Amino acid sequence: xxxxxxxxxxxxxxxxxxxxxxxxxxxxxxxxxxxxxxxxxxxxxxxxxxxxxxxxxxxxxxxxxxxxxxxxxxxxxxxxxxxxxxxxxxxxxxxxxxxxxxxxxxxxxxxxxxxxxxxxxxxxxxxxxxxxxxxxxxxxxxxxxxxxxxxxxxxxxxxxxxxxxxxxxxxxxxxxxxxxxxxxxxxxxxxxxxxxxxxxxxxxxxxxxxxxxxxxxxxxxxxxxxxxxxxxxxxxxxxxxxxxxxxxxxxxxxxxxxxxxxxxxxxxxxxxxxxxxxxxxxxxxxxxxxxxxxxxxxxxxxxxxxxxxxxxxxxxxxxxxxxxxxxxxxxxxxxxxxxxxxxxxxxxxxxxxxxxxxxxxxxxxxxxxxxxxxxxxxxxxxxxxxxxxxxxxxxxxxxxxxxxxxxxxxxxxxxxxxxxxxxxxxxxxxxxxxxxxxxxxxxxxxxxxxxxxxxxxxxxxxxxxxxxxxxxxxxxxxxxxxxxxxxxxxxxxxxxxxxxxxxxxxxxxxxxxxxxxxxxxxxxxxxxxxxxxxxxxxxxxxxxxxxxxxxxxxxxxxxxxxxxxxxxxxxxxxxxxxxxxxxxxxxxxxxxxxxxxx
Length: 598
Ligand code: OXD
Ligand code: MN
Fold this sequence. Notes:
This protein is 28% helix and 21% strand. By secondary structure, it is α/β, with parallel strands linked by helices. It binds oxalic acid (OXD) and manganese (II) ion. Manganese (II) ion binds at residues 240, 262, 289.
C-alpha cells in the first residue's frame, strides 16, 4: 500500500473507505504503484504548495512577477505538443458503436494492453487524485469526474480548468456515478501513447502524453467524448461550442452557442470587443470551448459551460485581436510552449510587438527572427481561470445556464462558404453543421491547412457513431419547442491574393448583430440555393474599410464552388454509411438540385 494515502492536512477523504471512489483509487494504485498519493482539495493553499514543488522540479518556470504576477512557463517534451487524433480510441464492444469516423479498439483487449503498460508505472512517483465538477455546483447539468495523474502539471492545470476538490466530493456524496479518469505520463515515448475512452464504463485511460487535450481528461475526453455518449442516452447535447451573451444598447442580452474547430477563433469570438461604431454593444463570455445544452422547462435550449478555465491558443492573441484576453493573461496563468523574453515575459507570433533581442524559443533555445523558425510553438497555449476574464458573463456560474437564441457553425474555408448563411429550418441547420468543412490547424498533429469534413466541429470529439449523433440532433429538434435558429459563418474566405477578405475579430459583431436581429424577427433575409443571407443594407458595414468588390466576394455563393462542395459532401455522407439519417440525405439531394437549377 502506498506510504501516504492522504498526504495533506486539508485533504478530502472519502469517509467511507468502501465507497466506489475509494475502491477505484485503490485498484488504480495497486496497478500503478505510486510512492505517494496526494488528494487535491481545490484550496489555493494546496495549489501554491504544488506550484512551488513544480518550480523546484523545473516543470514550471516562474515568469517575471512584476510583468506577469502569478504566471509560469511550462516547456513540454517537443514530441508532445498537440492532440494526437491517430492515437485516440473509442473502446466500445462493437466497432459500429464507435462509427467510421473514430478509431476503435475492443475494451477488454485495450484494458489488458494498457494495464501492461501501467503496471508499476508510478513507482517512485506521486499519484494526484483530482475530484472535479463539470458545470456549476447545484446545476442539473453538473457531472462529477475524478482524474488520477502522475503529472504535477496536469494536477495544477486541472485546478484551473475545473471546479476541483471539495466542491466535487460534496456533489458526489456516496454516489458511484463519476467519470473514472486515469492518466499516466510514462516516458513520453510516442510508441507507448494512447488515449482510450470506454463510454460504457464512463472511463478514460490516457497514457504517454502530458499535452492538455490528451491529459486534462475533464476536457475533450470527458466533457466531449464521454459526455456526448451520456448526452445521447440522457437526452442532451455535449458540444464543441463557445457560449456568448451579446447585449444591445437597449440592454437586451441574447445568448449564442457557436461551434468552430480547434484553433479557429472560438476564444476570440467569445471575448469579442465591439468596434467603436457599436457603442453600447457588449459581449460577455459564458464559455469558450465546450457547451452542454439541455431543453429547459420553457421548451428552449439552455446551455452551461462545464469548465472553469480556458486552455487557449496563444499565437495570434494580441491587443488588436483580443484585448480582453491580453488583460486576462496578465496574471495567474500557465503558459505552455511560448517563447520567453530576457526579462522573463512571454512572447509569441502575432502578439503585436517584435520579440526583444535575447528571446528564447519554446524549447528554451536562443532565437532570432532571421532563423526562419517560429519562436513560440504554433499550438502554444495559456491555461487561465475563467474568473480572470474581464468580460466574464454574470451567468457563467449560473446553475440554470443561459437560454440559447442562435447556434452558429463556422469552418475555416478559403473559398465557397459565404460570410453568413442562415438555415431555413432545424433539419437544414443540422445538415449545415453535419456537412461543414474546415482546414486543419496545429491543434492536432498532422498536416495543417487540409480541408476535411468536421461535422459540428466534433469530428475528433464525438464519442460514438457520427450518423447516430446526427440523429440525436434531429431528435432534439423534434423535442425543442422554441428552437434556436441555426447559422453558418466563415471569417476565413480569401481573395485571389490569398489574403483574408473579412477583417474578423471585433468586426464579427456586425454579423452577430444581424444574427440577433434575425432571431428577433427584426430584419428579413434573401434566399439563395444554399440558405438565407442578409438583404442589401441589413448587415451594418458602416465605417468598415471594405471595398465593394471584397464585400461581394466575401458573400458570394458561387455555383461552381458549390457543385464541388456537393460532391465532397456526398463522399462524406458515403463514409458515414447506413446510419446517416435519411432526412439529411434528402436535404443534400435537394441542395444539389437547387444548385443545378440556379
Ligand atoms: C482545444 C482543442 O484545446 O480543440 O480546445 O484542441
Ligand atoms: Mn477545443
